[in-house]
Write a structure and sequence with these properties.
The protein is mostly helical. The chain contains 10 helices and 2 strands; from the N terminus they run ααααββαααααα. Keywords: Cell membrane, Membrane, Transmembrane, Transmembrane helix.
Length: 263
């Protein structure tokens, strides 16, 4: 085992630690870690990220369910259109993206570059949601028509399918604003959507990619250990302050990715 691989496994522990501490955001670290440290191309990295995020979120769902913070009915209503979109995106859309995405004069935007730039843009959105102080608004009992939930699920599913992240930072505000679920319950409910979407999306990759199962299972196992450690440490650390600090870190990382890919 060389130094880079050891650092990769340390990174896996950090991914789980962040998930355990603040309940999300760890998946945002997985793709850059796999691409820039371990040298995987973005398509493989986003596929591996889906597996890591999906498996980790399964443990998170169980923990939230024990506290009564998972609305399975609403979660499954969002999950159906989302997991269909994620699967089709990973099975057909991502493999179908041309290797040269855009060429203009001396500038060429490749498929790998396009995926990483799009990923960085989503990271900026995620960082904003972490930095901004959200005040929970009073909710009505009226729920939106299902066709709106269906469309929203498809859109978010395509986005998460392309970037290989769980999309919890997109589902939480969607559940709060559109499904009228309280913030704490929205966080727990988003985990069941992330679990289903990520693992089914990964199934689309299994059919098109060669998976290094030994590495992936070890990486995922270490991430899960990090989650338990993070949950333990969260009793002593302010999650609110940590989340905002992590948001600024994600913003810096997103800026670096855009610079590195487009320079």
């Amino acid at each position: 085992m060389d130094t880079i691989q050891i650092l990769g496994y340390v990174g896996a522990l950090v991914v789980g630690l962040v998930l355990g501490l603040i309940g999300g955001g760890g998946s945002i670290l997985t793709v850059p870690l796999l691409v820039y440290l371990l040298g995987y191309n973005p398509v493989i990295a986003t596929a591996y990220s889906l597996f890591v995020v999906g498996t980790s979120s399964l443990f998170g769902t169980y923990q939230k369910h024990k506290k009564g913070l998972v609305d399975f009915k609403t979660g499954l209503a969002f999950s159906f259109p989302s997991f269909v979109a994620v699967y089709l995106t990973r099975r057909y859309l991502v493999p179908g993206i041309p290797e040269v995405f855009l060429s203009n004069g001396g500038f060429t935007l490749t498929k790998d570059m396009a995926i990483m730039v799009f990923f960085a843009v989503i990271m900026i959105i995620a960082s904003y949601s972490m930095i901004k102080n959200r005040k929970e608004k009073l909710k009505t009992t009226e729920s939106q028509p299902y066709y709106k939930t269906f469309v929203q699920g498809v859109v978010i599913g395509v986005i998460t399918g392309v970037i290989g992240a769980g999309g919890g930072f997109l589902y939480v505000p969607a559940l709060v604003l559109w499904a009228n679920i309280p913030m704490k319950k929205a966080v727990g409910t988003s985990l069941i959507i992330v679990t289903i979407n990520s693992l089914i999306g990964f199934m689309g990759d299994v059919q098109t990619l060669d998976i290094e199962w030994t590495f992936l299972l070890i990486f995922t196992g270490i991430s899960i250990l990090g989650i338990f450690l993070g949950v333990f440490l969260s009793k002593f650390i302010s999650g609110k302050k940590l989340k905002k600090s992590f948001g600024y870190f994600i913003l810096i990382m997103a800026t670096y990715i855009i610079y590195k890919e487009l320079k």
